[in-house]
Write a structure and sequence with these properties.
This protein is α+β, with helices and mostly antiparallel strands. Helices cover about 35% and strands about 15% of the residues. It has three helices and three strands. A three-stranded antiparallel β-sheet has the order 1-2-3. α1 runs antiparallel to α2.
Length: about 120
């Protein structure tokens, strides 16, 4: 969506500025993770951010594995919270703030590959 058709949003503006350059997603992801340093523990890559949508990916590697060699569910929760935070920052009006109130997790299967976490809401 063009700048003239939407109210300016600092997170989307920063993402668009960073991704014009090589390694821009990596730079943006590091800057984003500085807001909440725990996010950096999974080595996230924000691959898309726009109003009502955010996608975060991270690679399966020893740093995010549990004792059985699969991706630890809390690492996945970390990516999901980061995606939700990106969506919230990109969507809500700048005069409002948000705070996560909870998360419910079901352990439905082992995760043994790279992870893609998305957050999406209806406009």
């Amino acid at each position: 969506m063009s700048q003239s058709r939407r109210e300016s949003n600092y997170l989307i503006d920063l993402y668009e500025r960073c991704t014009r350059w090589p390694f821009g997603q990596a730079l943006f992801s590091k800057l984003f993770a500085r807001k909440a340093p725990y996010f950096a523990t999974i080595g996230p890559r924000v691959t898309e951010v726009r109003p009502n949508f955010c996608e975060v990916r991270f690679r399966k590697r020893r740093k995010v594995e549990n004792h059985i060699g699969t991706v630890h569910v809390i690492a996945i929760c970390n990516a999901l919270e980061m995606a939700m935070g990106g969506l919230a920052e990109a969507t809500i009006p700048k005069h409002l703030r948000w705070i996560p109130r909870g998360m419910e997790v079901d352990y439905t299967a082992k995760a043994d590959s790279d992870i893609r976490a998305t957050a999406e809401t209806r406009p």
